[in-house]
Design brief:
Largest sheet: 7 strands, antiparallel
Helix content: 25-40%
Distance between the termini: 46 Å
Radius of gyration: 23 Å
Order of helices and strands: EEEEEEHEEHEHHHHH
Shape: extended
Structural class: alpha+beta
Number of domains: 2
Length: 222
């Protein structure tokens, strides 16, 4: 049995010709459109252990027939490689590689495997943990009215927005960076350097008060 991951590539990378690349036990292939533009990267690996095959079982959730169980320890490592490849290929007009939500296909090599495999092809979808955020019309109206006066906080709010999106996409390291830049912009007073920034944070009564309130009300035992 083999397993194939198919990642969408966005950008203007073109290849006039290519052949499969066998690297670190993985086979890399490239899908091109009629203009030789690379649209997808396929990564194939052997599955020697049947416990790594995707399986499904009856779901206890109302409205859902089956739950899909992934037992693939290699997928996170392949995703790490895709993110590194995304960075490297940015030199050659690649905008992004959709490493978080690949199509995954089981490729049986024998009739016995065809009969035994439970799931042949599926795609990982976004799993946004944020609940709906109800907003009163009064607050929405005041936000619209004040928008022209929010230019000075547009940059830190932009960091917050990117951090929230990264967290929802489970890109936690990127989220940490974005939230840190938000704090640095708001409370760093234009300073740089770890010790200097720490001193500026300690001097901010507003930031310290918010941190103390959070720690006091946090459910985790910090």
């Amino acid at each position: 049995m083999k397993c194939q991951y198919r990642f969408k590539l966005n950008g203007k990378l073109t290849l006039s010709q290519f052949k499969p690349l066998n690297v670190r036990g993985l086979t890399y292939e490239f899908e091109l459109d009629e203009n030789h533009l690379v649209t997808h990267i396929r990564v194939t690996r052997p599955l020697h252990d049947t416990r790594e095959w995707p399986q499904h079982e009856r779901s206890s959730e109302p409205g859902i027939s089956y739950d899909l169980k992934l037992n693939d320890p290699r997928l996170p490592l392949v995703q790490v490689e895709m993110r590194s490849l995304e960075a490297a290929l940015s030199l050659f007009s690649v905008d992004s590689i959709d490493s978080d939500y690949p199509e995954i296909e089981s490729l049986p090599e024998t009739d016995a495997e065809k009969n035994a495999v439970q799931v042949r092809k599926f795609q990982i979808s976004p799993d946004n943990d944020f609940p709906p955020c109800p907003l009163s019309f009064d607050l929405m109206a005041r936000t619209v009215i004040a928008a022209i006066d929010l230019l000075e906080v547009e940059l830190p709010l932009s960091f917050f927005r990117h951090g929230r999106i990264a967290y929802g996409e489970r890109k936690y390291i990127e989220a940490i960076y974005q939230f840190y830049f938000m704090f640095e912009t708001m409370f760093g007073n234009g300073k740089t350097g770890r010790k200097t920034i720490q001193d500026q944070f300690r001097k901010s009564i507003e930031l310290r008060s918010a941190a103390e309130d959070f720690l006091k009300n946090a459910s985790s035992p910090w």
